[in-house]
Amino acid sequence: MLPPSNTRPNPLATEDRLYVSVFAPGAICALERDRGKLIWRRELRKYANASAYLYAGRLFAKTSNTLFALQPDSGETLWSFCPYGTDGESIYSSPSAHENRVYIGDRRGCLHCLDAESGRTIWIRHTNRARNSDVNSTPVLMDGLVIVSTNAKTVVAYDALSGKLAWKQKLDGRSTFGPLVHRDSVLALSDSLYLLSRTGQVRHRFSWKDEKVHQADSTPRSIVLTFWPKMASRCTEPPGKTEPNKLTLLVTKSGIQRTTTFVAFCPSFRYVPATRLVYLSHLRGIDLIHAEKGTVLCQLKTSMDPRNGVALVDVRDKKIYALTGDGSVHALRHPRLHVRGGYDN
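and the corresponding structure tokens:
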């Protein structure tokens, strides 16, 4: 599995299907959600993305150089977008769509706007001219703008329809995760965490001594974030060979910070509004965390070789859907937990 650069789950659960993106060997699979039966499998050249993306009856999947629009019922290719050929790795960004347009960045610093039905290019914008110009982030749509962060230490916003530059903001480091929407603000992650206004002005900049922000997600009351672990090889060291990880809940109205310390390797997480819980995936399993208190409510542990960990889970109809590093998809009954305003399974 490929580590995520956004908060999208893998597998993706719909009303009756699960869509699974398999990094290596590259493939997209569709399963029946109620019993896990394989419906179709579509092999992709080289490597697949960290997740699949569904929009307006099209399933978007990608390799490191090509974006595919697939028929969700069959896996048939409706169109593909490969701006620089199939040699090398030119696209690390994930697609986002809005009003029949698809947006995706590339490693040459460009943001592409495509027609969702045909794949035709509507406009292209070069976000910067730095040597490290990559747009590896996932575009976010907000108030008629499409917003991306870059390796050139910037966040850039364009009018989503015309491609006209709306604003640009400098950051203190390169940015590949996000950006995200938090209430009426844009979250940008670099070495620090930035809270930007709709016009790109810095409302708040949160930084931590000797620590760099790794991942984040937005909840109704807070921002949940983790930091890069302090070790040479983040996903290979055995237990006891690294410093503990920190998960911080930043309550945006009061500025209060709540920190939970945990030991986990290759951690990634996402907030699920239906349950009001944070689901932390890592090499050894899945931790369920209270989104307001930061306390660990339940730990689900794998009983197999955890070599590649667990992808970001999806939750639907009181079930947790998880992809593990051995290529298995699991449907788990959600533990019975009571969270105020959430649900009790």
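(Above: one complete record from the training split.) Residues 284 and 302 are 6 Å apart (CA to CA).
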